[in-house]
Amino acid sequence: MSKNAYIRLVQGSTAPEGLTLDDLQLSLHAYQDAVKRTGAQLGWEYEEAAFPYSIESVTSPNAPKPQWLYLRGKASRYRHIAIGIGDSDPAQEPAISPPYVQVVLPDGSTHGDRAKANELCRFIAQRLKAELQLFNGRIMYYNPRK
Length: 146
Fold this sequence. Notes:
This protein has 146 residues and is an alpha+beta fold.
């Protein structure tokens, strides 16, 4: 059974009105750049170990533009992670439910995928100053709260 984590763009977030897949892709590239610089400081090719995925855009057959980013693992320990964007929770009113980023571990994901997905979720949520609901249901707040 697949598992989900949510990054909610609440009041005080850097992008409270919404986010695009291009913005998410920029966040992933910023993460790759950060681990590349870390590797340069350590004198080790850390980038391949820290981000062992290739980024692909996935389009559904009846949608004109990509709906998901699919991270396909390059190493045997890592298989796949899917990242998508939602406008609001359909079960709640749009005024109450904020836009969100959904990170999915599909069936067949490994423990390595889960660890990397948690790390990516924390990085993206911190960058967006958002609220993060992890795969285990716990919530981390990176948004400025009063």
